[in-house]
Specification:
Pfam families: polyprenyl_synt. Keywords: Magnesium, Metal-binding, Transferase. The protein is mainly alpha-helical. It has 17 helices and four strands.
Length: 376
């Protein structure tokens, strides 16, 4: 089991806050082989359907989307670039099995959720000015902002098209869940942007934003396959609760990686969230603490807010490192690490009343464990 040390490098047996990793799963370690197999199944089953969906797009959007997914390089040559973790497709296929259906039953949901997720990435990269994703230049950097917007919009439309094609009652129920999750995802992005321009954000506001931005779509992913498989709303709602809290755990770890993550693992710049002045959980928790470092951090961030982005980007590494050190000294790093564990425990508790095969429950547990110990 691995986690971040103080320099952003993962170390055995510690979590991002520096304590031994324990989960709600009685201190069991993640079975990397099992999780890898689940993620690989998601990719193997969803990718052909995803490619066929993208092929429907008019040129050059089909090519731009193929670049974003890592299927081709910037020159249009076939590529095997990192296409992401595929957690959402894996969850959608697994949720079909909760309902007693074959995993393939969840394929329209798996592909639809992945399309919405990538719509959000294309737009987020442009809005945040991120130049790197998955160790490659982002779409807006290679193909321009207009294509990033258009392809994102096209993927969003494709998601609903794919999900509604079976024309069944279950497809209609699944689409309602996806559209609700998509709206909440957009709400979360709007909140995220607005918080960048505020001097203070509460921990509660930050958790609400991250629940919308990350939790809502993961919640949809882990219920949509079950809905397509004929599960009732009570089962689907319990699975959504698991996915929502798993999303909060996922985002808490993401926030730790956004400050202390190893760029070679994350594919982003050092101190990436600090460079963008994000009010992420470690920052917000640090500012809310009573530690002396919190007051010093608040003064620095108030001064930072008056600078232009160009001035801010001229900071050297030592200045970002100093801010990261203050966040850690004020307790933001430790609090966020513990919050990831709390959300992980709440996610697993949501599964307790759901009747499902034992191997499916074990796999959902393994995926939850994977989320809180991942390094990218």
């Amino acid at each position: 089991m691995t986690s971040l040390d103080a320099t952003g490098t993962r170390t055995n047996g510690e979590d991002p806050g520096g304590e031994p990793v324990t989960t709600a799963n009685q201190n069991t370690v993640v079975d990397d082989t099992s999780v890898s197999a689940l993620l690989e199944r998601g990719r193997r089953l969803a990718t052909p359907v995803l490619r066929a969906a993208v092929a429907r797009l008019a040129p050059p959007m089909d090519t731009v989307a193929a670049y974003h997914f890592g299927w081709i390089d910037a020159a249009g040559r076939p590529s095997d670039a990192d296409g992401g973790k595929a957690v959402r497709p894996a969850l959608a296929l697994l949720s079909a099995e909760v309902a007693g259906a074959a995993p393939e039953t969840g394929l329209p949901g798996a592909v639809a959720v992945e399309l919405v997720h990538n719509f959000s990435l294309l737009h987020d990269d442009l809005m945040d000015g991120d130049e790197q994703r998955r160790h490659r230049d982002t779409v807006w950097k290679v193909h321009g902002p207009a294509q990033a917007v258009l392809v994102g919009d096209a993927l969003f439309a494709l998601a609903n098209e794919i999900l509604l094609e079976p024309a069944t009652a279950e497809a209609g129920r699944a689409t309602r869940r996806l559209t609700r999750a998509s709206r909440r995802l957009i709400d979360g992005q709007a909140q995220d942007i607005s918080y960048e321009h505020r001097e203070r954000v509460t921990v509660e506001e930050c958790l609400e934003m991250e629940g919308n931005k990350t939790g809502a779509l993961l919640a949809c992913a882990v219920s949509i396959g079950a809905v397509l498989g004929g599960a009732d709303d009570r089962t689907a709602d319990a699975l959504e609760s698991y996915g929502y809290h798993l999303g909060l755990a996922f985002q808490a770890v993401d926030d730790l990686l956004g400050i202390w993550g190893d760029p070679e693992a994350t594919g982003k710049q050092t101190w990436s969230d600090l460079r963008q002045r994000k009010k992420s959980l470690p920052v917000v928790a640090a500012l809310a603490s009573a530690e002396p470092a919190a007051a010093e951090l608040a003064q620095l961030m108030a001064a930072d807010a008056k600078k232009s982005q160009a001035e801010f980007e001229d900071f050297d590494e030592a200045e970002f490192a100093a801010r990261a050190a203050l966040i850690e000294e004020a307790g933001g790093r430790e609090w966020t690490s513990q919050e990831a564990k709390r959300q992980h425990s709440t996610a697993l508790a949501a599964l307790e009343p759901v009747d499902m095969p034992a191997h499916v429950r074990a796999q959902l547990t393994a995926l939850a464990d994977f989320v809180v110990v991942r390094r990218r």
